[in-house]
Amino acid sequence: MDSPGGADLSELHVALDRLRRQLCHCGMKGECLGCKGIEMVRQQAQAVIAAASQPILIQVAQEAAMKDMAAQFEGMAERLMNDPEIRRAAELMQEQVMSDPETRRLLEELMKRMGGPEPEDGEQSEHGERGER
């Protein structure tokens, strides 16, 4: 399955679908935190790939829109994390995401391409190296 930018995201979609089945608590209706979180990750990945494949002038405009979306996402996440039940569900979801080696590798690759942070202390990269902070 190609993204609008022409990059093949089929492996990422397969991994996200597999993870969604593991996290879902609503019978795949898209109503639980697991389903919504996975779909948010899917949309963000597609937006990043689409933006990265555009000419530079369009990238500048899309970068501003991505920063705005990131700020909105951070604000939403902050409000959600104030709820102890949602915070625990998010922690469990993160544990499950990072326990699947293929999903973890794909997310690390995506973060690397986006210029994201290196793995935190105690976490291993896809090559088995320990991250430093």
Based on the model shown, name its key terms.
133 residues, mainly alpha, 0% strand, disordered C terminus
The H-and-E topology, N to C, reads as: HHHHH
What fraction, in percent, of the residue positions are helical?
Answer: 55-70%
Q: Tell me the total number of β-strands.
A: 0
Oligomerization state: single chain
Give a verbal description of the structure.
With about 130 residues, this protein is mostly helical. It has one domain. It contains 5 helices and no strands. It has helices spanning about 10-25, 35-50, 55-80, 85-100, 100-115. Helix 1 runs antiparallel to helix 2, helix 1 (about 10-25) packs across helix 5 and helix 2 packs antiparallel against helix 3 (about 55-80). Residues about 120-133 have low confidence and may be disordered.
SSE blueprint:
Blueprint: H1 10-23, H2 33-52, H3 56-81, H4 84-99, H5 101-114
Helix pairs in contact: 1-2, 1-5, 2-3
In short:
With 133 residues, the chain is mainly alpha-helical. The chain is built from five helices and no strands.
